[in-house]
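Below is a complete specimen:
___
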Amino acid sequence: MNRAERIYRLHALLRQRPHSLAQLMEALEVSRATLVRDLGYMRDFMGAPIDYDRASNGYRYEESTSFELPGLWLNESELHALLASERLLDLVQPGLLAPYLGPLRTRLRSLLSQSGHSASAVSERILLQPVAARPAEPQRFGIITAALLEGRQLRIRYHSRSKDSQSDRLIHPQRLLRYRDNWYLIADCDHARALRTFSLDRITHAEKLAGRARVHDQQTLDRFLGASFGIFSGNASAWAVLRFSPEASRWVADEVWHPDQLGQWSEGSYELQIPYSDPRELLMDILKYGPEVEVMAPKELREMVAERLRYPSWGFGTLAVKECKSSGAILIIPHGDSEHPCAAAARPSPPSHNPSWGFGTTSGAMYDLSPDSSYHNLHGDSERSFQ
């Protein structure tokens, strides 16, 4: 008999009449120590009004109360986990559930303090460090979540980054998605006549309407959200086959890029296959591995990656890879930029670098990396990174 079963049984016995410890131990088939722990748990964590009746030398519920077991009870470690989850959610979107969880949090902290633990340790020791987060404006966030939960239509003004244009849209909210530290709204868009994904930080105006939102079935939404890689949803149009170097494989083999991914080891390297519909996000994840990954298929994706490496699209033409004499840092600077502060102190890397993974013989001036990306193993030095 587990604890849940014992407590239900103990609850029934305490409602009937006073029972001595010996009678309760016999009925539950437990030791005295276990019974005392269960009685204490019911008192401290469930608020059970257990009373000891000296006349009958037995335990029962107080006569003046009508106590019922709560639908859920937790032990101390579970209470800590619940507080930790609430803490993390509050860090993800401050104030999202504060009006609802405030009373519950107070009760949980009270229970933990009775057990001799400090509830403040949860917020002090469990940390969340967002990366590249784009905060959503709190008031608009509240309007959008209210419309979603109430099943109402939304009128929004949306500024698209890819087109750098603004449009007014009538949408039918379906799901709110937290992805890579940012919020996205999945909605049926009247303008597009299809499901679309909207970044909440790009919604500059939101108005909840009285009209009921169209609702898509769970299967349709699951297919839209999970059929292909990344935030660019929709049915997969191709499968990417990526082969990683032995060193990078030790990380990638333990990662989940997509629920339907396929992976296998071959001669010390890891081959990953993932479905995708739009290559933009996948390209960014591939490029951050530099020569540590080779695109085996499809041909179109392989050519797109090679083109990005040859000709960066963000403004400087070809780039020179140099090593700073003073700091030893590996630098990427515009080719021929003598004004760069480190150009005078840097020496060019060898004119030709033949990585063991990727695209064959590759010039040292062809790597396109974002400023916050790390690039390891250039010339075999795993401790250096672009800074």
User: Anything to note?
Assistant: The chain has four domains: 3-61, 76-125, 138-226, 238-310.
